[in-house]
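If you are new to this repository, start here. Below is one unmodified record pulled from the training split, so you can see the exact layout before writing a loader.
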Amino acid sequence: MVTTKTIFICQNCGYQSPKWLGRCPNCQKWNTLVEERLQDIIEEGKDVRRVPSGPPKKLTDIKSGDFIRTNTNIKELDRVLGGGIVAGSVILIGGEPGIGKSTLLLQVSGILAKSKRVLYVNGEESIAQTKLRADRLSITSDNLYIINDTEVSSIAEHIEKLNPEVVVIDSIQVLYNRDFSQSPGSVTQIKECSGALTVLAKYKGFSLFIVGHVTKEGAIAGPKILEHMVDCVIYFEGQNQMAFRILRSVKNRFGPTNEIGVFHMTQKGLIEVANPSEIFLINTHSKSISGSAVVPTMEGTRSILVEIQALVTPSNFSMSRQRAIGVDLNRLLLLIAVLEKRLNLNLANYDVFVNVAGGIKVIEPGCDLAVCLAIASSFKNRPVSNDAIFIGEVGLGGEIRSVGQTQLRINEAVRLGFKKCILHNSDIKHITSASSIELLGVENIKDAVEIALR
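And here is the target side for that same chain:
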């Protein structure tokens, strides 16, 4: 029996409404509700996506054990995944077009195909185009199977016949379920196709990679429920014009979140960067320029030293401008207000530009002190100590607040040859091994500026 009904679905969050609304009540976005026809297929009360689950088991009868992980031999990717690929897991990879999603997954497929059967479903390119990419990446394997298909039930049939251990879907936006009348890429199609493949992956026990395109806001296209359905969500960061790519984990049921992996895009594919701090600094601490400060930021369990750059110039317009790349703009405006109030810096008639070198995004408050010192350095045209790092959150009263994992940050700075560290007084007692670096404790932003600026 087939029943059909018409509803309005938000293309941003998946909210459903029986009538059209100008603004989505769930995500508050305007003009996102689109009329769609839903067709429910009912065959004698049986759901087409239902798979045998077995009888219920007592918790005490279930044997606990470590997840079976498979290393990809790409250490940066394994770090982001929490130590490797878990059997039966579903991994969603998002990023802008051309940033390297297909390249990375084809490289991973080529490595895993040496010991496992891998199915690569490419709905956007022909088999010949995929072969050309594989030749460029020097990938050859008899266990790597390529198909060009976009119908989810047909893909499921290929999976049943081939019985692969790893499946790659590139991409979810081009797949469709013929039981639904919506076009590929709609909320219904994305949700139904993802749900069917996820259920199949859990039942069969194969690892599933799904490629998702991103919107102009940088979020994965489609309803937010797509990210809730999968086990791991990974974003590619960076720009097509830049050689370096950053792979960031924002959700991981089998490992820590906010881990990052750094890659270098070359003609031979993506090459992992084992020491990203040296790449992002580029010998910055050997130069003496104003408006530059180095901070050891934490990305998951890894400490990475990055350079905060600031440029403060007199404004030529009626209103001053503030721009930020790699730093939250609202946080920057707050720090500028603190500098004006607590240090009497007259920044109202100056344009303030802040940039994180290397294209990395810094989201933790531990970089506040470095941002403030870079701005003060550019405003006074006096360079900060080129052998110093700066750690601390800045409060509205101009006080410096302590941050976590100080020892890991210090260790990374020592390894790269820095000699001084300005941080909150209370953090010094947590440092157990820092014999080759001078620890300078401060209580407020005024003390930090007096020590840092020459």
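Two things worth knowing about this chain: The radius of gyration is 26 Å. Residues 40-48 have pLDDT under 50 and may be disordered.
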